[in-house]
From TrEMBL:
Location, primary (coarse class): membrane
TM helices/strands, residue ranges: 75-103, 115-135, 147-166, 172-194, 203-221, 233-253, 301-326, 338-359, 366-384, 396-415, 427-447, 459-479
Record GO cellular component, one term: membrane
Topology of this chain in the membrane: Multi-pass membrane protein
Domain Major facilitator superfamily (MFS) profile span(s) in chain numbering: 76-485
Family matches, as InterPro entries: MFS, MFS_dom, MFS_trans_sf
UniProt cross-references to Gene3D superfamilies, sorted A to Z: MFS general substrate transporter like domains
Keyword tags: Membrane, Transmembrane, Transmembrane helix, Transport
Protein name: Unnamed protein product
Domain of life: Eukaryota
């Protein structure tokens, strides 16, 4: 079979065996509800790439294979990390600029400051589906870099604002373009790494370093003098750093292993070949509506969306108000910005540990998510109940609350491992971001100015969110397990041998089930990680 054969083939039909019946039962009837059993003729680009280069390169030995993965770790992970972190800096940056005069200089009153935190996520809600389409339909690396570039310019324009309307408009637009960054990074990790490799690498990419960078840049901004307010210097620094970085990734960031600049042609071929064993797809720029319907019919999509909603209630509230909470304990503005640095360090360390545990503890990721939520729950109770005159326990409680981020990353690694089909992945990540934005908006609005400094409503919402996320993690575990049992029973009933991942390392004949962009439901040997 040649690449031209793939392009000219008008329609690919499933074989008339038990596999076809399974696809009809689980993919078509469950998701679409029609009698059309034909698979979309557009293949994953990985299949075309593998066909075009089949037989050209000698296999990689174990040392070469590990070398290619390590090279990708050294280059791709730092790129994605800094790209995702700069997109997150603005959320923390808003809280820091608030204690350096942004509220006073822009005549903000009442809930207007809270709305500035919310409006960014409202912009993300509006931009979510357009950006999901762009990530799927065009070159993913270029979409992410262009969004990062626009975001940088909008950050710089904050310096020209002098009222709520101007700030609100900019933050809405920032949210609109920023919503491509997190799903894009998640899709990128899924296209470069195996399922068991993704949890800790996801943790490294999404480490909560925004507080560290924001604290450092804020401290630097205080040394620039008084020609303009310090909060404007902060936005200038954040926007300038991000702008230069965006120019770099516009040139260097790939879309998948197929065009990774740091890999040789031989390494690219074998990296694509190994990731095909994920059976989740590598790259396909064709938007498939059948996969959209399947995503809408998948209960796990809604479970994770609700989980994202709950876990981002503390994210939204703490991002906008943690600096204010610290300052209310009696610290100066500069001290408050520096005291925010440990929040990022603690969140990052906890995330690395719990994702490492999730990758080592086979099929217990949901349980790890539940365990990791116990710590921030304790922190929230400490922060709310201990008298504010006890600064040490107050800070301890605040810092422990940032353990919530580990649970978020662990559950996102489940989504990466359990979702196949390029369009379905994009739509699923879009739903995840919908929950992310909804939770963050709720979080910023539950911290009301008239409840300062105790913020009773905010802390009640955070406590409820932590408990709800524990329950949702368990439900996701149960549903995924039931779906696995259904597939296993089907295989046994039809006499089909189950192929375990460790037994299925060879794809010399190009296993089309894995690389022709089928969804997880359409693949009879795809079993879900729990």
């Amino acid at each position: 079979m040649t690449a031209s054969d793939l392009e000219d083939k008008p329609q690919l039909e499933l074989p008339t065996d038990s596999k076809e019946r399974f696809v009809v039962e689980t993919a078509v009837q469950d998701s679409v509800g029609s009698d059309d059993v034909n698979v979309n003729p557009t293949y994953d680009l990985a299949l075309k790439y593998l066909v075009e280069h089949e037989g050209k390169y000698a296999p990689l030995n174990e040392k070469e294979h590990k070398g290619a993965v390590r090279k990708t770790d050294r280059i791709l992970l730092p790129i994605l990390f800094f790209t995702a972190t700069m997109g997150a800096v603005d959320k923390v940056c808003l809280g820091t600029t608030a204690i350096f005069g942004l509220i006073k200089d822009n005549n903000l009153h009442g809930q207007q400051y809270s709305w500035l935190g919310s409006i960014l996520f409202i912009g993300s809600l509006v931009g979510m589906w357009p950006m999901t389409y762009l990530l799927q339909h065009f070159r993913m690396g270029k979409v992410m870099s262009c969004c990062s570039l626009i975001w940088s310019v909008l950050s710089l324009l904050h310096c020209a604002c002098h009222n709520f309307a101007g700030l609100a408009a900019l933050r809405f637009l920032m949210g609109f373009v920023e919503c491509a960054i997190v799903p894009g990074c998640g899709l990128m990790i899924a296209s470069f790494y195996l399922k068991n490799e993704s949890p800790h690498r996801t943790a490294l990419v999404f480490m909560f370093a925004s507080s560290v960078i924001n604290g450092a840049l804020s401290a630097l901004a205080t040394t620039f003098g008084n020609e303009i307010p310090t909060w404007k210097y902060i936005f200038i620094l954040v926007g300038s750093v991000s702008f230069v970085w965006s120019l770099f990734i516009t040139w260097y960031l790939p879309d998948s292993p197929i065009n990774a600049k740091w890999l040789s042609e031989r390494q690219r071929y074998h990296m694509v070949k190994r990731v095909a064993d994920n059976a989740t797809g590598v790259q396909c720029n064709y938007f498939k509506w059948s996969q959209v319907w399947e995503a809408f019919a998948d209960p796990r999509v809604y479970i994770v969306m609700l989980f994202n909603f709950g876990i981002n209630i503390p994210n939204g509230g703490l991002s906008a108000f943690s600096s204010i909470i610290i300052k209310n304990l009696g610290f100066t503005s500069v001290q408050s910005s520096l005291m925010g640095i440990p929040t990022g360090v603690i969140a990052s360390i906890s995330t690395v540990f719990f994702t490492w545990l999730a990758s080592r503890w086979t099929n217990k990721r949901c349980l790890v998510s539940v365990i990791s939520l116990v710590i921030p729950l304790i922190g929230a109770i400490i922060l709310y109940t201990v008298d504010r005159s006890h600064v040490g326990p107050q800070l301890l409680g605040l810092y422990l609350m940032y353990f919530y981020f580990a649970s978020y990353i662990v559950m996102m690694s489940c989504v990466q491992a359990n979702t196949a089909g390029s369009t379905k992945k994009s739509v699923t990540y879009g739903f995840n971001y919908l929950g992310y934005c909804g939770g963050a908006i709720t979080g910023t609005q539950t911290f009301r100015s008239d409840q300062a400094p105790k913020y009773t409503g905010g802390f009640i919402s955070i406590l409820v969110a932590y408990c709800a996320c524990m329950v949702l993690s368990i439900i996701y575990w149960f549903v995924s397990d039931q779906m696995n049992r259904k597939k296993k029973n089907y295989l046994e009933k039809n006499g089909i041998e189950r192929v375990l991942p460790e037994e299925d390392e060879r794809i010399d004949d190009i296993d089309e089930e894995k690389v022709k962009d089928l969804t997880d439901k359409q693949q009879i040997h795809f079993f879900y990680t729990t």
